[in-house]
């Protein structure tokens, strides 16, 4: 698992890339909590949150044209949010001749705004943090060893699973399958089940192989073999600036609400 092995990593030389991974993880969690805690009835806090994210993108040399297409993973939640103004009850308001729920509008805005900011923040950390730095960073943050191992193995094998799913799809098409035809839904479901079983069996084999080589369930501190050293106080102070700004914005939003 080399540096930048995961597909979301963007190679660049910036101050954000050089920050220790543990500082970026803590900043991400604090920023997301501040965004979630902000009142959904207001708009301006989320505009400021967006400015903070864009500022970090600028510092990390992440162009919006690279980041925005990768944020489409939240599309299913946006579809759900669009339905809420029609499905919720309570006070209603007419918009262009359509009766919409006020509560549903607030809920939809909250889902879209908070989800978009959360995805953007997570993508920023992924784009600036090599996968090889994650085990040491998580163990330094006292994350349980089981969770660290699962996350590291997931990053290591996700590309392999995607490639295998692609090979299975090509095999179905070469045998006359039409993926867009409704009557092939059963074959697609069976393929998903087969992929799950193969992944489960591969996981068991990998785990047994690791145990046979002395793995005790703990991710080692990789500082001795090339991982960056522990974060210094000054690095913590600089890395947590976006999170601190987000906390101030969320607090101010509740104060003036």
From TrEMBL:
The record, for InterPro entries, names: ABC/ECF_trnsptr_transmembrane, ECF_CbiQ, ECF_transporter_component
Positions the record marks as coiled coil are none
State whether keyword Transmembrane applies.
yes
Note the topology in the membrane.
Multi-pass membrane protein
Q: What is this protein called?
A: Cobalt ECF transporter T component CbiQ
Q: Any idea where this protein resides?
A: Cell membrane
Q: Which residues cross the membrane?
A: 21-37, 43-60, 236-256
> What is the superkingdom listed in this entry's lineage?
Bacteria
Q: Name one Pfam family in it.
A: CbiQ
Instruction: Tell me which Gene Ontology terms the entry assigns under biological process.
Output: cobalt ion transport
Taxonomic lineage of the native organism: Bacteria, Bacillati, Actinomycetota, Actinomycetes, Mycobacteriales
Q: Which gene encodes it?
A: cbiQ
GO terms for cellular component: ATP-binding cassette (ABC) transporter complex
Q: Which UniProt keywords apply?
A: Cell membrane, Membrane, Transmembrane, Transmembrane helix
């Amino acid at each position: 698992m080399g540096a930048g092995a995961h597909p979301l990593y963007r190679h660049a030389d910036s101050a954000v890339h050089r920050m220790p991974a543990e500082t970026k993880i803590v900043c991400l969690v604090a920023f997301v909590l501040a965004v979630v805690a902000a009142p959904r009835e207001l708009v301006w806090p989320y505009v400021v949150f967006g400015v903070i994210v864009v500022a970090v993108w600028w510092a990390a040399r992440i162009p919006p044209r690279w980041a925005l297409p990768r944020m489409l993973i939240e599309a299913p939640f946006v579809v759900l949010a669009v339905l809420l103004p029609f499905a919720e009850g309570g006070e209603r308001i007419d918009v262009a001749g359509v009766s919409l729920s006020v509560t549903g509008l607030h809920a939809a805005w909250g889902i879209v705004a908070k989800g978009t900011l959360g995805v953007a923040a997570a993508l920023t950390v992924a784009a600036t943090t090599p996968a090889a730095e994650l085990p040491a960073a998580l163990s330094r943050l006292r994350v349980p060893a089981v969770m660290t191992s699962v996350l590291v193995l997931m990053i290591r094998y996700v590309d392999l699973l995607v490639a295998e799913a692609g090979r299975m799809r090509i095999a179905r098409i070469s045998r006359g399958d039409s993926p867009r035809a409704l009557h092939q839904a059963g074959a697609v479901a069976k393929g998903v089940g087969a992929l799950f079983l193969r992944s489960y069996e591969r996981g068991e084999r990998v785990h047994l192989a690791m145990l046979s080589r002395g793995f005790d369930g703990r991710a080692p501190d990789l500082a001795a073999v090339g991982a960056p050293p522990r974060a210094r106080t000054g690095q913590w102070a600089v890395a947590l600036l976006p999170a601190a700004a987000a906390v101030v914005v969320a607090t101010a939003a509740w104060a003036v609400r």
